[in-house]
User: Which sequence fits this backbone?
């Protein structure tokens, strides 16, 4: 039987999604929990990697089990077994050809920036706290300029171990931060929506960036956020965004924003 | 110059308030930050200990510094130096005779219980997640029965290293979970208010217990909560609370509720 799980996790204390020897990872913790519950050792496939410190509200994982288990029972048993930092939000039987990564049609990421003076201890793990002045109007002008199909080389991680091209060559499909490699060749991706807004929470006001796309290169969302923040600080103008895209060079864009503000919000199939 | 700081902290990753060799503690982290900022080594006195895993919204600490520093500067510099899990919420000059523990007139604690089916990863560090059925009306009847002056021996930790009596004998005054020993002899304390309520949050509904008193014995709030939960489960009736108090024996009351749901809310002087 093929399974689809939807997962929320606090990435702070994990070395990312992908299983690694002797380090706590989300994929590893999930595989252990599935084995403890069912007796079957499987490697759940995620919709894509998330890096160390990146959180998820709706990561999706798929795997096959031989034992017939009602979804509600697997759901409850996994939540009793997993560490509290990982929660199964939904568990369902999936079509035989469903694959959490290969079947993706779109993903949405969210990046949270705290603008207040004192970032509370309960918020600190989940936001980038940043209280220098920002020209938010300029950021609002810059953010939509990445919508559409573009070559995002300027916003891709330069670490050669982690480039999408290598991942594709190896057919692991799992070496980009978050993604299916079905949306175009090389570093071309399609962004459907790119929005910045203010959100009131119990802990104060957040500046929230949300981006929905066909797929994302490794570090792409964090590099976009770092660049939009450079627009807010006046290092770039909004009109520089198309120029940066055009140059296809990582050196042209801004710094990588910290992992702790990033959430994989949801995955569409 | 005498100083008064108000502190919020996430206690999850600290071995409690009180400084210990080779273990991260809140008092130790604060002493280190003060030294790094001012060059002066002091041991800040808290309003009382909090145990490992217990949080604070408004812990108060006092200490003396020779260097003349404007409060706003010390405030900002400490928040730049402290780990994000500890925040200085207020910094002010205090009267010469102010002492964070000896001067306490009342303290308020809050205990948070999550009743939903899935406790999100962002809430898990800060609540006791408990989804068995509870007779909340019975708990509402039990909770006010501890108001007034009582001998709380039945609700005090039995660990002999941590009893208030020993702490008083040693004149450390710092060996109770939270408190000044000025409110009465032995294990007598005065409770001004004891209330249970429901609170809506971004992450779902919480059952919140708040208690305000002259002082508290070690583990007293967690033992009260554990006992009120036993009332909710039907192990005790509300009317058993006065009987349990009367017996002055830890064995009569319920279990100690987990540290992670407990917050030192505020301290009055």
Assistant:
């Amino acid at each position: 039987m093929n399974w689809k799980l939807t997962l929320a996790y606090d990435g702070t204390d994990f070395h990312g999604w992908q299983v690694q020897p002797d380090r706590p990872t989300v994929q590893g913790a999930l595989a252990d929990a599935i084995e403890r519950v069912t007796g079957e050792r499987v490697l759940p496939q995620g919709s894509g990697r998330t890096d160390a410190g990146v959180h998820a509200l709706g990561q999706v994982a798929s795997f096959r089990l031989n034992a017939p288990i009602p979804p509600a029972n697997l759901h409850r048993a996994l939540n009793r077994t997993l560490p509290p930092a990982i929660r199964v939000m939904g568990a369902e039987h999936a079509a035989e050809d469903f694959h959490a990564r290969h079947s993706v049609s779109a993903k949405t990421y969210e990046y949270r920036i705290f603008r207040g003076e004192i970032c509370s201890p309960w918020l600190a793990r989940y936001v980038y706290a940043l209280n220098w002045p920002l020209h938010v109007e300029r950021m609002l002008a810059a953010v939509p300029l990445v919508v559409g199909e573009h070559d995002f080389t300027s916003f891709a991680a330069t670490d050669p171990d982690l480039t999408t091209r290598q991942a594709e060559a190896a057919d692991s499909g799992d070496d980009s931060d978050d993604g299916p490699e079905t949306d175009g060749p090389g570093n071309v991706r399609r962004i459907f929506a790119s929005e910045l807004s203010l959100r009131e929470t119990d802990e104060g006001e957040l500046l929230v960036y949300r981006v929905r796309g066909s797929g994302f290169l490794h570090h792409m969302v964090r590099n976009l956020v770092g660049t939009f923040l450079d627009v807010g600080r006046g290092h770039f103008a909004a009109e520089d965004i198309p120029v940066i895209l055009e140059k296809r060079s990582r050196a042209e864009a801004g710094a990588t924003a910290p992992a702790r503000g990033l959430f994989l919000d949801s995955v569409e199939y």
Summary: The domain at 106-268 of chain B is CATH 3.30.70.660 (Alpha-Beta Plaits). The longest helix of chain B spans residues 26-38. Confidence is low (pLDDT under 50) at residues 161-184 of chain B.
